[in-house]
Specification:
Length: 340
């Protein structure tokens, strides 16, 4: 079997804008699903409070008990809080941007590491420039692909350390302001929360939150979400996949990823209605029904590699000329031939 050495290169535009236009033209009623869901703040605060309470209960527990609770309970709460931050990123709780940013900062508390404000900026770029290597932080670094590729042990390590790999991607990205008042506020409040947990509950409680954070985005069936969304697991011509399994019930429908990319202004509770409104557009796409099955398939299937992602060079009206993408000269030549 030939080992991949590069990402899949597409010479087509990202698929979501065109599909959105077609769906709106055929089903104009889908516009009624666009809006805010201020009641999301109730779920957000409940999950933050729950994580704090569980950390308190575990303050005197053995390390193995803490790890078990983190894996089977804390990871699910923390994963859902990532979804809350995602909702705040798209301003889907409140009308004004400021309250959404503040809500995202609060949702960030149990994650131990400050990330919500910068995630908001990187994620918006991901939507605007899907597959553009210099702007889309969801695309792995080339060195990630070369280091891990299709190795089972490597992929397990990659999932376990996924938050760390994400941090390294930020150094590659362009056109993003790295620090401002909101970032400073995020860091200040986060570290104040961390110190309070350690001072009042102890290091065991902090360890629970820390372990829950890493499990929620890494070596856990929930970590398959990152594979499900944009990895070319079924068809190299389809770069975005939805998940329609039971864990959507506790993950606030985050699996409806094609629907979200097509209509990012629709809140989590209405995403299934997007699919129901335009079934012909979504039933014809490949999708996943089990994060657990995908998790193990990604680990053990040698055909699946970190390089199984789609990149493109055309960002729309402004073309990128950076030479950091491997084989960029061949890519540009092929694109010119296609355009001609």
């Amino acid at each position: 079997m030939q080992v991949k050495t590069n990402f899949h290169q597409s010479f087509e535009k990202e698929p979501h804008r065109d599909r959105t236009k077609k769906i709106i033209a055929e089903h104009p009623e889908v516009r009624e699903l666009i809006g805010k869901n201020p009641f999301t703040i109730i779920a957000l605060l409940f999950m933050v409070a729950s994580m704090v309470f569980i950390s308190y209960l575990l303050r005197d527990s053995a390390w193995w008990v803490i790890l078990l609770v983190a894996y089977f309970v804390g990871a699910f709460f923390n994963h859902s809080l990532f979804v809350m931050i995602h909702e705040c990123t798209h301003n889907l709780l409140f009308k004004k941007k400021g309250p959404n940013i503040l809500a995202g900062i609060v949702a960030n508390f149990p994650h131990v590491l400050p990330s919500s404000v910068l995630f908001m900026r990187y994620h918006i770029k991901h939507h605007s420039f899907q597959g553009i290597y210099e702007l889309d932080g969801d695309i792995p670094n080339v060195w990630e692909g070369r280091l891990i590729n299709n190795s089972t042990i490597g992929k397990a390590f990659w999932l376990l350390m996924y938050p760390i790999f994400q941090i390294f991607r930020t150094f590659r990205l362009k056109e993003i302001k790295p620090i401002d008042g909101w970032v400073v506020l995020n860091w200040t409040l986060q570290f104040a929360f961390d110190v309070a947990i350690i001072v009042f509950f102890g290091w065991s409680s902090f360890f629970f939150l820390f372990a829950s954070f890493f499990f929620s985005v890494g070596l856990h069936p929930l970590g398959a979400r990152w594979i499900q969304e944009h990895y070319l697991t079924i068809d190299e011509n389809q770069e975005t996949y939805s998940y329609y399994g039971p864990l959507n019930k506790v993950a606030f429908n985050v699996g409806y990823h094609n629907e979200h990319h097509d209509f990012p202004s629709v809140p989590w509770n209405r995403l299934p209605l997007v699919k129901k409104t335009a079934p012909s557009y979504y039933d014809s796409l490949h999708s996943h029904t089990s994060w657990t099955m995908l998790f193990f398939r990604f680990l053990f299937d040698k055909k699946l590699s970190i390089f199984d992602r789609t990149i493109r060079q055309d960002r729309g009206k402004v073309a990128l000329t950076d030479q950091s993408i491997p084989d960029v000269e061949i890519f540009e030549k092929h694109r010119e031939e296609v355009e001609a």
